[in-house]
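Please think about what follows:
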Amino acid sequence: MKSLRFFKPTLATTLAIGLAWLLSVRPAQAGYIVTLQQVGPDVVATGSGPIDLTGLTVSQSFSQNPGIKPYGHLGAGPASIATGPTSSSVHPYFGAITGPRIFGSSANFTLASSGSGDMVGISAELAFQTFLSVPTGYHSGSFLSDSATYSGQSFATLGVTPGTYVWKWGSGANQNFTLQIGPATNSTKITNISTRAFVQTGQNVMIGGFIVQGTGPKRVIIRAIGPELTHFGITNPLANPTLELHNESGALIASNDNWQTTILGGVITANQVNAIQNSGYVPTAASESAIIANLPPGNYTAIVRGVSNTIGVALVEVYDLSPAASSSLGNISSRAFVQTGENVMIGGFVVQGSGRKRVIIRAIGPELTQYGITNVLDNPRLELHNRTGALIASNDNWQTTVLGGIITSNQVNDIQNSGHAPTAASESAIIADLQPGNYTAVVHGVINTTGVALVEVYDLD
C-alpha cells in the first residue's frame, strides 16, 4: 500500500477521519445500509448510517428484538429485518414508504442469536403501511450503527435471496433504508474521514490528504467546516474557512470559499450548489466551504485556511458519494498544529462492513522536520476511543506497548513489521483489529506541549 510521505513539504502528509463521539460523524454512504453476509458458519448483519425522518409520522413505542423474516403474506405478517440488541425500545415511523414486500422465500421469523448497537428495522407491511423502527428518542439525521449474528445459519436456512433491496420515503440522500444481501466476503473498509484541529497560518494551517485506490473514479464531497462546530461546544471556530484541493503533483485542481458560490476551474466545470444541497452533506453556514469532485485513482491533498489569515478550530471532511464504485478511500492522515484543551487534534473514522479491520494508527511529530517543519510536536501521545467515548487503546512512545482495552500483548514487533514504524522513539503507534463502528483518535502533547503533528490511519488488510 502506498505511503503518503512523498508529498511536497508544504503539503506534507495528509488527512483523516470523522469525529465519532465528539462531532456526530455522518457516514460515507447515503442513508442507512444493512449488509447481510455469510461469515464462516454464521450469517452476520451489520448496519450503519443516518436516517432522515422527514415526511414520516411517529407512533407509540414498543420493544423490538433483532430478527429476520424474508417473506410476508396476509396470514403470517410482513417481511421484516431488525438489527441491534434484544429488547430494545423503538419508535415506529409510518408514511409513504415504498419498496419491496419480500426479499426471500421463507415466511419464518428467525430471531438473531445476538445483537448490539442501535436497534433499527424495516417492516414491509402487506395490508397496511410499511414502517421504519428507530431507537426511542432518535434525533433525525444522527448516525446509527448496529449488528446482529445468526449463529449456525446460512442464506439457505434463513430463506433470503441475495441482492439489493431499497425502501424510500423521499428524495433526500438519507431518506432510504438499503438491505444488501451479498456473498461470503469480508468487504470491511474504512470510510467517512475527517479531522478537527486548530487552524492557524503558514505551516500551521490544516493539511489533509487521501488516496483513491482501485480501477475507477471516486465521487467525493470535501468540506471545510467552522461555524457549525459551535453546536458541539466549540467556542473559537474558524469563522470563514477556505478549501483547496491539490493532486499528487501539488497542482491546485479545485477550490472553494463559501459553498453557495461555485469557483469554476480544474475539476470543477459546472455550478455545484444544487449537487451539494442534494448530497446529504450540505454545510449549515454559508461561510463554510465544499467541493464535489470525480477523482481518478491517485493521491490528493486538501488544505484548510482562514480568510484574511483568520484562525480558529475547523473540521476537514471527505465523504464517499459513490460507495458502489470500483475504487475506495485509503491511507488517510492529517497534519495540523496541536495545542491543548479543545485545540488538540481529533480524528475519527468509520469501519464499515461485515468483519474486522486491521489498522495501524500513528501520531507523528519529529519525523516532520525532514519536510521543513520547524515547530513539530516533540512527544505526541495517541488515544483511541470507540463510539461511546470509551478509551480502548493508548500509546506514548511506540517502542513501549501500553496494555489495556483492545491491546492485550506487546505490539513492538508487529509495528516494526507493518511497514509503518515511526522514525522517532517519541512518536506513537497502535495496531488494532476493529469491529465495524465509529472510532476517534486524539493526539496531544505530553505535559501539554504544543506543535505540528500528523495523525494517520493505514489499512493493514
User: Anything to note?
Assistant: The chain has two domains: 9-28+188-459, 41-181. The domain at 9-28+188-459 is CATH 2.60.120.380 (Jelly Rolls).
